[in-house]
Amino acid sequence: MIKVIFICLGNICRSPMAEGIFRKIVEEHGYLEHFKIDSAGINPAFINSQPDLRAVRSASNHKITLYHLSRRLTIIDLETSDYLVVMDNENYKAVSEKCAGDSLRKKIVKIASFTKNPVFRYGIKDPYRGTQNDFNEIYDILEECCYGLLEKIIREKELPNIK
Q1: Cys-Cys link to 39, which of 15, 66, 93, 100 (CB 3.0-4.6 A)?
Q2: pTM for the whole thing?
Q3: SS3 of 36, please?
Q4: Any domain includes 11
């Protein structure tokens, strides 16, 4: 089982959207049985909160339902995940500081490394203080990035070519 965890600040906007998008893509490609997909946040302010309604709307527009309740990233997540997928440089720094040793730090992946859009190349901005349009834009970027992430994992884990 390949464990992928998406990480952002509060776990109510970007990471639950990425979790839902990635799950849909993985399922469409026939790999769902190979994955455990989750998300978490760094900041405890929103623990046990539903995803932001604007994130829910963006996902719903693409036939994705976000069932996630926000939670804080744990040491167990760091140790048991194969991929720690962070949304921006601030998240990268926070997760890196929690990692005890290079073996855990090697698991960190910047989701923005999979976009061709230069505006987002160094991080997926937090849409929390934005509008519904900002969430829709972030959804589109996350979708592009999730396809790239799946391609990377297929290569690295040598998954069979199903579709």
Answers
A1: 15
A2: 0.97
A3: strand
A4: yes
